[in-house]
Amino acid sequence: MIPEEETAQRRRALRALLAKPLLLTETDADAVVLVRQHQSHLRDWLGRETGWRLHVDAEMARLFKTQPATNPPAPDPTHPARGRAKEPFGRRRYVLLCLALAVLERADAQTTLGSLAEEIMNASTEPELAGAGFAFSLETRAERSDVVAVIRTLLDWGVLTKVAGDEDAYLSATGDVLYDIRRPVLAAMLSGHRGPSTITAETFEDRLAELVDEPIPDTDDLRNQAIRRRLTRRLLEDPVLYYDELDDEERAYLTSQRSAITRRIEDATGLLPEVRAEGIAMVDPDDELTDVRMPEQRTDGHVTLLVAEYLSTRQRARLDELHAFVRDAARQFSTYWRKGVTEPGAEEQLLGIALDKLAALRLVEVDLDLVRSRPAIARFAVGEPTIKTEDAYR
Amino acid sequence: MPTTAQPFAHLSAPNVSLYRDIMRVFARAKERFIVHLRPEDVAAELSRLSDEHLAQALDQLTGWSNLRADPDTSRVTSVEDFHRKRFLYQLTGEGHAAEQALTFYDEMIGRRGALQSVALEDIAEQLQALKVLASEPDPDPAKTHRLLLSLTERFSSLADNAQAFMSSLRRAIDFSDGNVDGFLAYKERLIDYINRFIADLANSGAQITVLITDLERLGHDRLLRLAAQREASDAVPDETEAAAAYANAEAAASDDWDNRWRGLRDWFVSTGTGHPSQSRLLRQAAVTAIKQLIDTVVLLNERRSGRSDRSADFRALARWFAEAPDEAAMHRLWRAAFGLTPARHLTVTAGTVAEWDEVDPPPSTPWQEAPPIRISPQLRKTGSYERRGQPNRIEDRSLARRMLRDQAEREAAETAAARRLLATEGPVLLSELGVLDARAFRLFLGLLGDALAARLPGDTEVKTTTADGSMEVRLSLVEGGAEVSVETADGGLTGPEHLIEITDLTA
Q1: Quick check: is B297 in a domain?
Q2: In this structure, how many other beta carbons lie within 10 angstroms of the beta carbon of residue A286?
Q3: Other CB atoms within 10 A of residue A121 CB
Q4: pLDDT score of B2
Q5: What pLDDT sits at residue B262?
Q6: Is residue B288 within 8 angstroms of chain A, CB to CB?
Q7: CB contacts, 8 Å: B319 with chain A
Q8: Residue B175 — pLDDT band, cuts 50, 70, 90?
Q9: Cis omega before residue A73 (within 30°)?
């Protein structure tokens, strides 16, 4: 194989894993083939640069990504689990998801939605869950549809494969659905080094810290390697890495090793380093390797763009100020935007979406009713209009 | 004989094990031709004291008519014994029958479906012998009958074993409680079964199938009739006086033998996909069993591999989610525990990258001062890259169309030329085709493919027309022909020698 082709294939394989850490043969056949072809190279690279484990077998490829629970100074809550309509999971779904996995772990080779739901309900009566105020009875339609949403998530990941039936029929209480359980996938769900059941900490932050804790090596070389892995992981995962979020040791290492680290990432993934005074962004010329896009078309994308533009000219803005801004924009662009944007209260929803996107991309920080812009928001600007001549249409 | 006999009642009584032990003592004694037993004898056999307990049990069994009690009139040596009612016990008819039934039941239940691998061999051997008889003009009836009888016996024992095997496979085995020892024992046994049973079945089964088919061709009915006649003559000693009775008996025996033969046949010979033979079903069942076995091994391995119990892990996580302070915390827990979230990166346009290369901003440049990503003014103004309300221009595709047409014509002309080149004047040998150019060879391959696909198994000659109806090919295998090679511009194609005739139907 010619070296350029090999590099391109390895990049595609690694990108696929970064975008989707669990690749299944049925749904991502090409990607799995690529990963399998280059698995030893990828495994070496990922082990050396990130300390992440790569598992490849006949059915799937799984990259066990781990990241620090707290990205100092601010923890990053912008990566929720999402349902099929991209809606973030709430408490009940998260709990149901874990209970479903616990039940499946003990189940036989096949199960039905009905019996799974029953067993989830039984599992939910555990005193500790009830003590935390969690109650689940399967009686309301909302509860049933949360079960279905969780099951569909499991189907999407390939933990379950459908044999017969339809979830909608279950929702309307007229039918049931039969599934095969895929143990290898089920076994590859958790990515941490430690089993949560072995952790006895009582507070949430302590539990999280222990869950992702990695022992700190006591030689200089290994400590440097650990720092490099932490930095590489964040550059591979996060849109922007700001210097003011790093501790002294990390900042010193990054200052001296910056070009080496970014070059290695660029070689492996094709992401380009955007190195600025305030931090580093590994940006994607292909605009593929992300779950949140900017700029984007249609109403939500447009609102986000306008809010970003508004914030890029000032350090901070209050929420009510931004609400007023969005209300004005809705009137101004009502011909282009979807219906209902000018109704009272619509601006809150629109602004919410926009700020979620901007926060996810680490371009703003929302603190109660104050929104602060972060330096990288200045990287966007409206281009000069280009006048297309008749030739442009030839 | 009392009509209230309940010889099986002791099976559901509280002291069942004692009752069974006592009954077995009597049954064994009867095997030694000993009829009467005293309570002391029974106690000695059971290595226990002849106490009140045993006396009650014997009484009880007598009440259920398993035993009969007769007064014991022999001499006694103590006053107590004299005043005690003394009896001699013996098995009743009912008791004995029940005991035999129970023994038989135990045997059946205890059967583990082990296959005597010799049974298949024997069956094959007997079929072979029958085949020899069948090809004789006047087979010996006694020999035939004996062979058929022993064949029947071997076969029914084989079928019984197979049935036991099937049901032992179907027995649901639940390993969810992690009974590893039980599983390992089962695994050994299953692998044992598979080794012996299925290998034998696959090897001898095929041979038997062939023998059965051969026998049927040679007229197996004749042999079955012989056996039936012989049985009928046994049943009716004087055939002249009872002709009708003889005919009936012969018909009945004949029916029996036909039925047995059908059983044998169905067992080994599949009739179409709808009715797979028993032996085939068995093989499938064994394969399924192996799959289930592997699944279970995988499951056990997974459970062992994790340092912690994964089910407990998920339950712990469920609790953590339930106790998390807010949604933001849950999202962080989700990402940390599952690591399934996608990477997230900002985009950049080719124009901006070019600008960076040109300006080459030093790393100390603030974002504010570096060349930015240029957002399309159209997007900024409307939220969409597309111009609204204005349809896309219609492209003039006449040039492309003309090119396609030219290409199609050129290809058609080339194919016609290749067809003319390929067409033969009458049948020729493959080895005499001469050197083919790339296009002719591709056409030739297509033809060969069509012809070989149309050829039924066993045919040596085939004639077919290509799918587009442009050519006809006739292909016949040359008996004893050597491997030949068709030379082409791209290399040689080797295969058995054929006589080929290609007609260009469009010419």
Answers
A1: no
A2: 12
A3: 18
A4: 45
A5: 85
A6: no
A7: 126, 128-129, 132
A8: very low
A9: yes
Domain that holds residue B421: 417-504
How far apart are alpha carbons B306 and B289 in whole angstroms?
26
Instruction: Name the residue type at position A323.
Output: H
Domain count within chain B:
5
List B500's β-bridge partners, or say none: B428, B475
Indicate whether B75 and B153 sit together in one domain.
Answer: no
Which three-class secondary structure state does DSSP give residue A228?
Answer: helix
The answer, yes or no, to whether the previous bond of B325 is cis (omega within 30 of 0) is no
Of A98, A276, A305, the CB nearest to B380: A305
CATH 1.10.10.10 fits A298-380, yes or no: yes
A365 close to A359: Cβ distance less than 8 angstroms:
yes
Whether residue B134 is found in the same domain as residue B232 = yes
Nearest to B365 among A276, A289, A383 (CB): A276
Sheet with B461-465, strands from edge to edge, namely: B428-429, B498-504, B471-477, B461-465
Indicate the DSSP class of residue B198: I
Span A220-283: which CATH code? Answer: 1.10.10
Contact A146, A124 (CB under 8 A): no
Across chain B, what does the average pLDDT equal? 78
Count CB atoms within 10 A of the CB of residue B388. 9
The tens digit of pLDDT for each residue in A201-222 reads 989 988 988 888 877 777 888 8
Cα separation, A265 vs A259, in Å, equals: 10
8 A C-beta contact, residue A65 and residue A34? no
Question: CA-CA-CA-CA torsion for A155, A160, A164, A165, nearest 10 degrees?
Answer: -50
Q: Report the residue of B173, B294, B314 to disrupt the A interface, i.e. the one with the largest count of A CBs within 10 Å.
A: B314
Chain A: nearest CA to B385, how far in angstroms? Answer: 7
In one-letter notation, the amino acid at residue B434 is G
**What DSSP line would sit under A56-86, residue for residue?**
E-SSEEEEE----S--SSS-------B-TTS
Residue count of chain A, please give it: 394
Backbone angles phi, psi at A164, to 5 degrees: -155, 155
DSSP symbol at A383: P
DSSP-derived letter for residue A244 is G
